[in-house]
Amino acid sequence: MESTETLEFGHADRKGIYEYVERHGAVDPEETRERLDLDPSGFRHHIAILKRDGRLEEADGKLRVTIDAGAEEEYVAEDLEFHIRPARQEDLAGIVGAIRQVAEEKTYIEAESVADEIDHENALLRHNELQSRMFFVATVEDEVIGWVHLHAPELEKLSHTAELTVGVLEDYRGHGIGSHLLSRGLEWAGSNRYEKVYQSVPSTNEEAIAFLEEHDWETEAIREDHYKLNGHYVDEVMMAVEL
């Protein structure tokens, strides 16, 4: 997922179409044309070029930013069948619900802020000159039961790093779903030339810390009394893994 600073649109209207689609996640073509006040023939021409250049794609009557994130994978663990795939805009409500449920169980503050952000923006994936945001989901019978999220600011001095959150609903733990999600997220990060992935969790979330340590993450620093939870000060554990 290269920075949009390297994208060449060649026309202001083409750039405007891309930015509109990127900002809204998945849009109706005719509604987009009307909102941008573009004539039909010119709009069709620009869409054709954006599709040809791999910037936009159209599926189920919606325009979306093209993000190459691999295919859906199927797994069977004991009597549970689940799938892991790149998230789609239609997964937004399911992802927000899953994140908030996990955050409420284990006090996952960074993940909770992600849920608030995507719910407020009503856009799941982002790829613009300021940030890249990618999600993969684990599903059981099309229900989102886990996620992995990566966020990377498009700042030169931080362009080698990405922040990650990952979680699985409690009823589906113990089947290796979290490990598969983490692996998929790190694989994507590595293929997009990120060198380091990090996240922070409260020290009280011992399960998350143990999970990351089992996957070769290391504690880089501890900020004492960084969180205040239920009237008590709690340390922030800052963890990372080199790719």
From TrEMBL:
The keyword ATP-binding does not apply. GO terms for molecular function: acyltransferase activity, transferring groups other than amino-acyl groups. The keyword Protein transport does not apply. SUPFAM superfamilies: Acyl-CoA N-acyltransferases (Nat). It comes from the Archaea. Coiled coil: none annotated. Pfam families: Acetyltransf_1. InterPro entries: Acyl_CoA_acyltransferase, GNAT_dom. Gene3D superfamilies: 3.40.630.30. Residues 82-240 form the N-acetyltransferase domain. Keywords: Transferase. PANTHER family: GCN5-RELATED N-ACETYLTRANSFERASE, N-ACETYLTRANSFERASE. This is GNAT family N-acetyltransferase. It comes from Natrinema versiforme.
